[in-house]
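Q: Structure tokens for this one, please.
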Amino acid sequence: MTSNRSAVTTTIDDARVATIAFAPWRINVFGRELIEALTAEFVRLAEDDDLRLAILIGGIGQAFNMGADVKEMAAIADADDAVAFITSLHNLCQSIRDLPVPVIARIEGHCLGGGLEVAASSDLRIASEDSMFGMPEGRLGLPSVIEAALLPSLIGWGKTRELLYTGDTIDSSGALRIVLVEPSCPSIGWTRSLRAGCSRSPSNRAHRQSGSRSGWSRSGKCCRSAKRSRPASTASASHSATTHRRR
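A: Here is the predicted structure, written as tokens:
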């Protein structure tokens, strides 16, 4: 079964594994249209009680995602418009966390800014050897105010501050050393192995309820409120990002 939403294409195979590809034909960035389409797709998938696993694929080759569309951000008219844009990207990340089954982000190429925050919202991240990761928006004078609050639980406060303060990028080897991504060699083979395992497991929804990552307890429909309780609201993300810049 395949569904299409603008730049988002979803295929669900016989094992009830959904592969969600967003803007796979170009170096993609998050504009409003893509954000809304991808959010709507995750909301739709959350209603599928038979779903076992979701694999998120961004741009192939050059970039998984380069972050927010700078041209759209430059056209923001006022503070209310800025809040609306930031909130829409936060809602996308929340919709990923609200999905009752595991989400794997399969990353090729650059994964920056909002793209990294979307990857951090997934349960597992696997990366190709040419992948690059970073939060370079600080170099443009833009604070990381969306899901940057998720990074400390993945890589620790020190590495989070390093990425935010410097705006530097790290390669896949560096990402593996700080446990931002999972071991994968090659990544596509590892995806197939994990995909097969997850699709065979009848209890992967329950596993998420007892998962080790703080705040992602959930199982089926009853778990969605637990996911919403994560410290990942726009306000908390903004507070965390600005606070550790000041320290």
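A few notes: The CA atoms of residues 92 and 230 lie 15 Å apart. The chain has one domain: 2-246.
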